[in-house]
Amino acid sequence: MTALNNDNLDKLDPRVVIPAYDRRSVTPGIVHFGVGGFHRAHQAMTLDDLMSRGQALDWGIVGVGVMPGDRRMQEVLATQDHLYTLVVKHPDGRYDARVIGSLVDYRFAPDDPQAVIETMADPAIRIVSLTVTEGGYNFHPVSGEFDFDNADVRHDLEHPEAPKTTFGLITEALKRRFERGIPPFTVMSCDNIQGNGEVARHMFTAFARRRDAELGARIEDEVPFPNSMVDRITPVTAGTDIEELASRFGVEDAWPVVCEPFTQWVLEDRFAAGRPAFETVGVQVVDDVGPYELMKLRLLNASHQALCYFGYLAGYRYAHEVCQDPLFVDFLLDYMTLEGSPTLAPVPGVDLEAYRHTLIQRFANPEIKDTLARLCAESSDRIPKWLLPVIREQLARGGEIQRAAAVVASWARYAEGVDEQGKPIEVVDRLKEQLMTIAADNRTRPTAFIDNRELFGDLSEEARFRRAYLDALDSLHHKGARATIEALVRC
C-alpha cells in the first residue's frame, strides 16, 4: 500500500498514470465551488490533460466548500496534497487509474470566508466555476425566481462582510475587484441545468441587486456567465471503490473518484479574462450550447428518471440491472424516440439515433454500479427541469406523452416510501416531508401529487396528461411496475 501524496507519486504502481508535470509550477487561475465527484472526474481532469501537455499551468484550481459536509473533503485532500485518483471503469471489467494534480488547494469557507473572498479577489483568478447541484442556485422550482426567504441568504444581505452562501462570497469578491480596479472573473456554471449560465447570471444578479442596485447592475453588465453542457456518469464513491483501488493498484486514497469512459463538455466561448485552451483536449467550444444541453437534459437526464423509480419499485437497485433488462430498454428507447427527441432542435454533428443507443450502453455498464437511490434523489429539483418541459411541449404539439406521464406517476408511487415488496424506501429530497405527506393520499385522492402547483403548476388541469398519469398510477398500485411498463411498451 502506498499513501497518495506528492512524495509518493514515483512510488506508485507503474500502471497508475501520474501528472506529467511539476506540480510546484502550477499556480491558481480558477476557484471552484462544489468539489464533488463530478467536478473531479470532469473539469479537473480536463485541466490535468492540458497541464500534462505543458499548457495551462497558470490555471490551477482552488476548491471551495460551503456546506457542512464539505469539511471532510477538505480534510481528506489536505492529507493527500490535494491529489486524488480517478478510476475509469470499462464495461469489460478493465480499470484505468490516474492521479489528478490540477487541484492545488481547498478552502472550507465557514472556517475563513475572508480568505475565500480574497482568493477570488486576486487578479490571478480569472474563472470561478460551479458544480453546486440544481438546488444550489436557490431558485423557486415553478417561478424560477431567486428565493430571498432562505435564512443564509438573509444573513448575507444583512452581513455582507461575513457571507455564508456562494452568492454572498462571489458577490463580495466581485465588489472588491471592482473597487480595486481589477477586471471581473467569469462565472462558469457546470451544473445539469438548462441554460445553466443564464440561470447563474439571473440568480447572482438578483442577489447582488438586492444587496446593492449599482453593484448588481455592474455584475450583469460586465461579468460573463457562459452556458455549458457536461456529461459523465460519476456515481458516489463507495467504500468498495476505495478497497478496489487499494487491491488492484496498491494506492491508499481516502476519496478516489470512479466514472465511466464516456465524457463530454460543450462550452460557450464567452470569458472576461481568457480561458484555458479547452478545445485542444476534446471540449466542444461553441457559440450556442442550447441544442446540446437540451439533448442531454431530455434524453440522458430524463431517461435516468424514467428508469430509476420504475426500476426501484420492480426490485432493481442499480442502473445497469435495469438497462440489461430488454423490457426496460424498449421502454427507455420508446420514451427517447417518441417523446423526448421530438422536442429537440437539430444538434450539430450528432446522430440522435446513435446517441440514444449509446446512452443505453452507458447505463448498462456493470462496472459503474450507479445506484438507483442516487438517481431517485432530489427529484423535486430534477423532474421539473428535465421531464415536465417534454410533457408540456408534447401536449402543445399533440405528441405522445404516455411514457413521460407514467414516469411522473412512478415518482409519486416511489414517494409513498414503500416498495412493492413492502420494504421502506429512503426518500432523499429537500421537499421530503411535503412530498411523502402528499403521496400518502395517492390511493384516496389520485391527483394529490400532481395537484401540487409548486412543482407542477397547472399541468394537472391538462386532461390528456391527467388521464395518462392516473392510468399509470392505478396500474402501479394494482399491477406493479413491471406490468405497467409492459403495457406502455405495447401501446
Computed CA radius of gyration, to the nearest angstrom? 23 Å
Oligomer: single chain
Helix-strand category = alpha/beta
Helix content: 40-55%
Largest sheet geometry: 5 strands, parallel
Enzyme class: oxidoreductase
Domain Mannitol dehydrogenase C-terminal: 288-475
Keywords: NAD, Oxidoreductase
GO molecular function: oxidoreductase activity
Description:
This protein has 491 residues and is of the alpha/beta class. It has 21 helices and 13 strands. It has helices at 37-41, 43-52, 70-79, 113-121, 151-158, 166-179, 196-211, 213-222, 239-249, 290-313, 319-322, 326-340, 352-363, 372-376, 379-386, 388-397, 402-414, 432-439, 453-456, 463-478, 481-490, and strands at residues 2-3, 28-33, 60-65, 84-89, 95-100, 103-108, 127-130, 186-189, 228-231, 251-252, 257-259, 264-268, 284-286.
In short:
With 491 residues, the chain is an alpha/beta fold. Helix content is 45%, strand content 12%. It has 2 domains: 2-285, NAD(P)-binding Rossmann-like Domain (Rossmann fold); 290-490, N-(1-d-carboxylethyl)-l-norvaline Dehydrogenase, domain 2, CATH 1.10.1040.
